[in-house]
Records
---
Amino acid sequence: MKHDLKLTSGSVQQVVNDLNAGWRNEVVRALGMDSNTFQMAQGTLGLQSADSSGLFLMADSVPPQSTTAYYDPSGKNKRSSAYNQMLHAMLPSTSSGLRAALGDQYSNWIAYRNADTSDLSQFELFKKWASRRLDPNQETAAITAFKMTLSDPLNVALSNYVDKNFYMTFTDDSGKSFTLPSYSCTIDAATKAINTGGSASIDYDSTTASTSSNGTMVSGSASGFYDIFSASAGGSFEQLNQTAASSAFTIKGTIGKYATVVSDAAEWYDGSMVSRAYNGKNDNTIWDPNSNMGTWDSFFGANGSLARRMSSLLVVSEYDLVVTSKATYSQADFQQIKAQASFGIWPFFSASASATHTETYTLNEDGSLSVRYQLNKGLIAIWGATIQNAPN
């Protein structure tokens, strides 16, 4: 990969794109991943998981259509939320009787259902709405009609979505509890996979690495992150990013253990409902015209919220890697990077407070900069995922 001596911010972005593509291809080669479906992960979320929460958060992310993506736990795009919206945009397969019983009130029921954020079952929610909006005679007939739809797959799916048995509660460092939808990629599953996993050597050189992603299901080289050094709010590495991008990078070392772990959703998710929605693009008996929760395109289009999912995660442990920037740095540059690059250096971006690996900075005799990353045995990092297109 060739570099210009003077680079604009746009040129730096292109260099980072190429670095990401080359690094991803090295991981594919060394760890035996499928180049057609593997997406490299960067960011705070991808670099730590002390319990199942990190794995669940990653599995519940909506992957962009790119070969490398930046993931953050505060990201708003959640697969579970998108799935819930899709359910609320659909019609039951047995809705005709309920429509007849409600008449003009049907659209009011749909609006009420879609706006609800409680964990009530569909039947309890409907009874609550009917007691408030219908006269006694119509309420009785409506409840009878609704009971007939309870076994409908859509209503079953809606009830399962709010079933607390399919969620897990965690406690963060401040003692605050939070709940996440469960996935099969628990910390126990990841640890078991790691313990029986393989090992690998890494030998990446940006001057010889392939940056091609031709023919892959995922496309593009990066999503959401285009720097080499990343500072906290108020910091700036514009000049140093240009310096680093003007020269080569190497990553060398070993990965003691790596494995893939399946990331299937628990029973809050029903794949048959996704298939029904996906295969009914123009079917007016599937998509509810009274719903404003989304359309086929918003869910399954090229950038749709359910267009792709993570079918498995690549987890690693016991790694010892040295990232070297072949550019020339002064002692002042070195001190600034050590003091202010609080969110990391390409390709291992992570807020220092949440990173589980250790970082050691060295200014080499030739002026180049090396950072050694070590992850101890028993700790797990998420390096990427296998991406599947809907409706799989």
---
Amino acid sequence: MSTHDTGAPPGGGPFLLGVRHHGPGSARAVRAALEQCAPAAVLIEGPPEADGLVPLAAQDGMRPPVALLAHVQDDPGRAAFWPLAEFSPEWVAMRWALEHGVPVRFIDLPAAHTLAMTDKAGGESEQDGEDERHGERERDGEGERGGDRGPAGEEVAGRGRGQEQTQPGEADRDEDGVRVDPIRVLAEAAGYDDPERWWEDVVEHRAGTGAARPGGPDADALAPFAALAEAMGALRETYGDAGHDRDPVREAHMRLQLHTARREFGDAVAVVCGAWHVPALRRRTTVTADRRLLKGLPKVKTAVTWVPWTHRRLARRSGYGAGIASPGWYGHLFSAPDRPVERWLTKVAGLLREEDYAVSSAHVIEAVRLAEGLATVRGRPLAGLTELDDAVRAVMGDGSDAPSALIHDRLVVGEVLGEVPEDAPAVPLQRDLARSQRTLRLKPEALERELELDLRKATDGGRSRLLHRLGLLGIPWGEPVRSRGSAGTFRETWRLRWEPELAVRVAEAGIWGTTVLTAATAKAASEASGAAALAEVTALAERCLLAGLPDALPVVMRALSDRAALDADVGHLAQALPALVRSVRYGDVRGTDAGALREVALGLAERVFVGLPPACLGLDADGAAEMRAHLDATHHAVALLAQPHSASEPHSASEPHSASEPPSASEPPSASEPSPAPGSRSAPERPSSEPPRGADAGLRARWAKVLRALSGREAVPGLLRGRAARLLLDDGQLDADGAEQLMGLALSPGTAPTDAAGWIEGFLGSGSGGDGGMLLVHDERLLALIDHWLTGVPDTAFTDVLPLLRRTFTEYEPGVRRTLGELIRRGPSAATSGHAGPATDAVTAAAPGFGPGLDRDRAAAVLPTLRLLLGIGQHGFDEERSGTNNAVNDLTGAMS
């Protein structure tokens, strides 16, 4: 084969090594070619601004996958990534050059032009200009990887904040608008219907099997590149630039850089680039013509650094244009010294055993035999993922797809997170974040995990503040979730996952300050000044307390006071109150002084008390539903605000405070309270069993007065009247007789059926309590009232009432609905019918909904289990039979 056929001119260079990005076969072939040619310099497709970062790749602290990040200095949100894995040909070439002391240069179009062109082109950049950003963009409708052209880079365009702005394959079209995938064209010419399978059979798998590895004693390491260059040349002759308007500009810059390198190092120069560009680099053009193409390009100031990357973000399903389907598998092919199938299935067996699957070495042996047999039958040089997946499903998974899904997530794709050295260029905010992460022992990880925090511990408190500050800055490293272990306010649960694009968010947040604390403080003050709604300011105050931002609170408090004084909408006030009250309570566990917030919250609550009754008059159905939500939110806020407040006594683990916890005492209204409006129905009051407790009890009493006024005023929609009655009942301000009286009035014949159905929905609907069905199960008098009212609804109104009732009762649990149906079927019990005699034996009396009496023989059979659960001493079976009555009574009392 002549020198020209290998991609190098007769003088011995340059050596044009066309590759497909992120391919282990291409990476291994590049290393073999470099060993054979020993070039004086290595040129790599990538942003030239990164030349000064190349030495960092040789440090011990650099562990791929990593990415080059370039962003506009004045607008970090406009950024682009160039990801590299250990099996990327560019990374292998870079490491080889560093190990051999050979200079490395990046030769692609500078990021200063790429980002400027993206901003200038606007919408056009999202289609025709995507190749500068994503490089190996997909070239077919199914998102196949056309990695023979373009840099391995993906851009964060405009204000994308780390996410791509183009759809896969939008720009990979020929001049007629048809996408051109060079790998697909070559695969079809070879008789394959799957381009990925053809590429793996020809390049990736053949390069990973023992004797077929490149670099053997008799192998010509340049031969594969010559064959690929010839194929790409034929494609370029047919399709030209395939409709990629910016390819000529990029290739002109590459030719100029190659010309400069040849003048400096001679012809012994190796170029590692996408195979699609090799024909253009071999084309003979003048320097003047190339410079003419580059003249007048827009330019911006950029900054470049290394950032960690993940296998998940290398995957095609993440939306990355140069994505591959199986980064974990490709990494295994590249790193396995021999017998990749056996080693892979050993990894699979280890993973399944960790997940408690019964997998043995015999399974591995049989799976290897099956995979290799399938590869032979299908004519493949090496068992691929298709054969391996079939073997695992048949041998290790017993035909189930569950192991395959686990293997795909954990091994085929993987959750590997790269690392970069500490001395890599970074904005001050990034360095402060890294210091905080080390101090708090909170290491970023690609694998999603949950973190339980105990805010009473100093380290956990610091972690909570850091995560809340990052959330305020728009860096969502962690997402708060509901804690499973405790309902106390001293617990927090976070779901953490570090995404590579968060590096862009950190750089973008650097405009607010040089540390996480100062940046979050400045951002909070700015948001407080610009907030338009009262609820936004109260939510911001809550976040400031969570994040521990004492310097931002005065600004937020001034904004809160100003907007609270000007906002007269009761709905806005009620919407803002819960977040403000939660902020007041945070002082108990976080050591913050929330006294000023408490005064504002009390004032806000009083304004809600005054304005709520008039605001509830004359509402339609939608307005009543919206006001019901405000009613529930205010009730929770008052219950929380009225709890004894002590900043020095945090909630204990055994006594967590909850907004839904009913008060232990109630206070009757004072004599100075005005009586309900004329024509209203007064709600019976429950006598107070404990003396009032100062301001806290007074707040509860004033709220109870508001609820009583709502529950008895006819002009208030039935939905709100029923909800107010239910809240009074739950809060101990209304007894069962009073609730029965209010229900009787609401369901009287003079009340419109739709209004009565609304009352039932408010009283028995899920709302905040969610136990309306259980209330009917245990109080047959209320159930009998509803049954009697429903049977008397006229036929003409029944169709209007039915949807309201159906919406109410479908919210109940199936068991509750079944019990209610059984109670209705059996009719009212003797107690509700007025025929009950004196109860001489409570155990033998009929239990509502559960039959006429207790079957003691059946009850005795479950006594051992009940004793075990309740901690009551065990006895012999004979003793249980003889003492059934006493045992049943004891257990009934224990459970009650």
---
Amino acid sequence: MSGSNFNPLGNAAAGSGFEVYPDALRKATDDIYAARDKVATFGSEDLAQIVLRNDDVGMLGVQADVVHIFNETIARMRDKTDKGVMQLDRLAEALDKAADYYETQDEADFKRLRDLEKGLN
């Protein structure tokens, strides 16, 4: 998939009658990056502070393996937030790439119209 031939919607966009606003895609990209940052902070800072120790649960909690189960659950949550961060990053990159594509298309369309107006086509 080369940069100049990339069409994020394939042939589905041809003649569909909808308009794409690259600035709106860029705004959505910024919002997704902001969400990604919040999820990353939650996983790396907020969840990192949550640790249970044997002293926190008493003898029955230790015998029931509560500490291990709880800490393992927090570790899984951190893993899932890391994966969520990666997915949000990919989504934002795809939207940004789509915005680039549509900006290029807009520029090419403007040039064609300008050339037609000048009688150069």
